[in-house]
Each structure stands twice: as structure tokens, then as C-alpha cells.
Design a protein that fits this description.
- This protein is α/β, with parallel strands linked by helices.
- It has a single domain, classed as Rossmann fold.
- The chain has a six-stranded mixed β-sheet, with helices on both faces.
- Helix 1 runs parallel beside helix 5 and helix 3 runs antiparallel to helix 4.
Length: 152
């Protein structure tokens, strides 16, 4: 069975993810460091991890994700761990990450970290826009349909 794993603490597309998952009857693991409110639904598994460890939510997702699952995250290291297990990753801006793109995404992340550390750049990512939400919904719908078809 296909599942969606949401790195939930700072995810701007939780509601959209839950709507798409409900339409397709797909289980969603909403993983966070704090309790996240939302509808009571047997297809939503709220997982609250310890606050004692910096990447506890990422670790939980990486431990439980399987091939053909979908992971929603902007975190590149978590994306790389998920792709290595055969999952499909979708960033909240609608950009998918897979075996072909995760290497470049990791390299860009590392370069930007270095440039921020040296003071060469001081800004962060572009703000989340209306077009990002639309692109995300379209891509998530496509990924869920493909994952369900592949799972049989």
C-alpha cells in the first residue's frame, strides 16, 4: 500500500496533501516535533517525535518509508535518504526529487550552505508563492496516481 510521509513542522502544504490523500484513500503519516491539529481521520497517522534530537522527524520518516511511498519535504538530506530507499520525494514548491535529480539538489544545498557560511549570500529560499501551491497540487495528484498504479 502506498503511503505519504509529511515532514510536517514547517510544511506549507499539509492541508493540500490531506485533501489529495483523502480523495485517493492513501494513508498519510504526518510527522512533527509537536502535535499538529487537523481532521480526525483513520487515514491520518499523526506521529510526534521527541524534541531532544534535532532530526528526529527526519529519522522517523527515513526509518519507515519504503519503495513507492511519497515523501513531502524541503529537507534535502531527508530527501536523499528517502530516494535511496526507493521513495519519491516532492518538495512543497512542486519540485520532485528522484535518483536523477537528488545529486544536483544536494550539491546546490552544500554550495549555498558554504556561500552563507562565508557571507557571500545572506538570503534564504524564495518565499512560498501561489504558483508553488498550484504546481504542488498538480504534481502530487500525478505522483499518487502513478504510485497507486505501480503498487497494483
Amino acid at each position: 500500500m502506498v503511503a505519504i510521509f509529511v515532514d510536517g513542522d514547517a510544511c506549507p502544504v499539509k492541508d493540500e496533501t490531506l485533501r489529495v490523500a483523502a480523495r485517493h484513500g492513501v494513508l498519510v503519516h504526518l510527522v512533527s516535533n509537536t502535535w499538529l491539529r487537523g481532521p480526525a481521520d483513520p487515514l491520518i497517522n499523526r506521529v510526534v517525535v521527541t524534541r531532544d534530537k534535532l532530526d528526529a522527524a527526519d529519522d522517523w520518516i527515513a526509518e519507515h518509508v519504503a519503495a513507492n511511498d511519497i515523501v513531502i519535504t524541503a529537507d534535502i538530506p531527508l530527501a536523499a535518504r528517502s530516494v535511496a530507499k526507493g521513495a519519491t520525494v516532492l518538495r512543497p514548491n512542486g519540485q520532485p526529487l528522484d535518483q536523477n535529480s537528488i545529486g544536483m539538489a544536494s550539491a546546490v544545498r552544500d554550495l549555498n550552505t558554504h556561500l552563507r557560511d562565508t557571507g557571500m549570500i545572506t538570503g534564504g529560499p524564495a518565499p512560498f508563492a501561489k504558483q508553488d501551491r498550484s504546481r504542488y497540487l498538480d504534481k502530487l495528484e500525478t505522483l499518487v496516481r502513478a504510485a497507486k498504479a505501480k503498487a497494483g
